[in-house]
């Protein structure tokens, strides 16, 4: 494939340019549908005249439809877009970037979606879809999936409505207690959404993410909590996000002493209640109930998801502690920044 693409670039470069442009238009419509021509032209930095010509062609090919509310993809358009993803990664060089990121981070696999979720928040939905496809690929007949909270995992839950898990037995369990005040982004809510969208079951962990040592000892004696913790330990797949240190500390309502500790330790990344500096050193850990960082290597599959240029330092810092078998799902913005830091 690579050799063919190189030859095509030399012989008919306009063909590949047209292909990339139309793929970008289709993908942008999928991200924002229903969308009007003016809004789409502005998003793509393209004149309305050029965009009009392109979308008329795509309509004639039955790849998009026009409605009063705006343009949207047809079933054929969605199928074509999915089929083109790997080809477009070769054309744009993203496959090569994925290999470079794996080498820099020392992990098994990296999946990169085009774009930067810091610049376009809808790219986070693409990360969610990519995670859902990875999960679909890794599933056995019976599965326990441990899931953390966060907006990226919430995107994964939404995307699971579009994957094929027919005949699979799925049990989603929260890997952590609740963090922050936004209920929809907490692990319990996300597990419930994943179970509903994938036709599986879920369990609830009725504990806050951060607790005192005394309360932790008491809660660990509760049979219902012990049952969920046992399920977490038996999980086949772990799916989790990676946070920016100071933002996660704010979500946890960390006190002045803890914030000073993070600042003094130059913390940049967070996962599972552990805060890391740029070298990957743990500079602070909160007392939590649920999956612990040192337990990760025991799991068969670990999928980490985070995107956006601003998350690059957090990803790099965490990956110095991550299992080598980790699959990272990220976006182009984070990936390019990760490589810059090398």
From TrEMBL:
The protein's UniProt keywords, in alphabetical order, are: DNA-binding, Transcription, Transcription regulation
Q: Identify the stretch annotated as signal peptide in this record.
A: none
Give the Sugar-binding domain ranges: 90-340
Positions of the CggR N-terminal DNA binding domain: 19-88
* Similarity comment text for this entry: Belongs to the SorC transcriptional regulatory family.
Please give the organism.
Siminovitchia acidinfaciens
Q: Name one GO molecular function term.
A: DNA binding
Q: Which InterPro entries does this chain map to? A: CggR_N (IPR048715), NagB/RpiA_transferase-like (IPR037171), SorC_transcr_regulators (IPR051054), Sugar-bd_dom_put (IPR007324), WH-like_DNA-bd_sf (IPR036388), WH_DNA-bd_sf (IPR036390)
Query: Mind telling me what this protein is named?
Result: Uncharacterized protein
Q: Can you tell which superkingdom this protein's organism belongs to?
A: Bacteria
């Amino acid at each position: 494939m690579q050799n063919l693409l190189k030859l095509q670039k030399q012989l008919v470069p306009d063909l590949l340019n047209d292909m990339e442009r139309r793929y970008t238009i289709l993908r942008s419509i999928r991200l924002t549908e229903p969308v009007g021509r003016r809004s789409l032209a502005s998003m793509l930095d393209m004149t309305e005249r050029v965009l009009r010509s392109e979308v008329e062609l795509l309509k004639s090919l039955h790849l998009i439809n026009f409605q009063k509310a705006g343009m949207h993809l047809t079933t054929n358009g969605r199928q074509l877009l999915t089929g083109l993803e790997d080809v477009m990664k070769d054309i744009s060089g993203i496959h090569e970037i994925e290999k470079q990121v794996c080498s820099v981070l020392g992990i098994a696999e990296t999946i990169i979606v085009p774009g930067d979720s810091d610049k376009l928040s809808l790219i986070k939905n693409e990360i969610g879809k990519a995670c859902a496809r990875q999960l679909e690929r890794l599933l056995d007949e019976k599965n326990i999936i441990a899931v953390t909270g966060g907006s990226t995992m919430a995107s994964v839950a939404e995307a699971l409505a579009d994957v094929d898990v027919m005949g699979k037995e799925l049990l989603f369990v929260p890997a952590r207690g609740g963090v922050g005040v936004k209920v929809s982004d907490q692990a319990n809510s996300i597990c419930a959404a994943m179970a509903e969208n994938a036709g599986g079951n879920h369990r609830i962990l009725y504990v806050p993410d951060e607790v005192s040592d005394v309360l932790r000892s008491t809660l660990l004696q509760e049979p219902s909590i012990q049952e969920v913790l046992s399920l977490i330990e038996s999980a086949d797949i772990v799916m989790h996000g990676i946070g920016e240190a100071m933002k996660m500390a704010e979500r946890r309502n960390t006190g002045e002493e803890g914030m000073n500790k993070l600042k003094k330790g130059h913390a940049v990344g967070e996962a599972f209640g552990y805060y890391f500096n740029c070298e990957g050193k743990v500079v602070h850990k909160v007392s939590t109930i649920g999956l612990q960082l040192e337990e990760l290597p025991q799991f068969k599959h670990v999928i980490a998801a985070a995107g956006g240029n601003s998350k690059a330092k957090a990803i790099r810092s965490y990956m110095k502690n991550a299992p080598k078998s980790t699959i990272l799902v990220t976006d182009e913005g984070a990936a390019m920044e990760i490589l810059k830091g090398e």
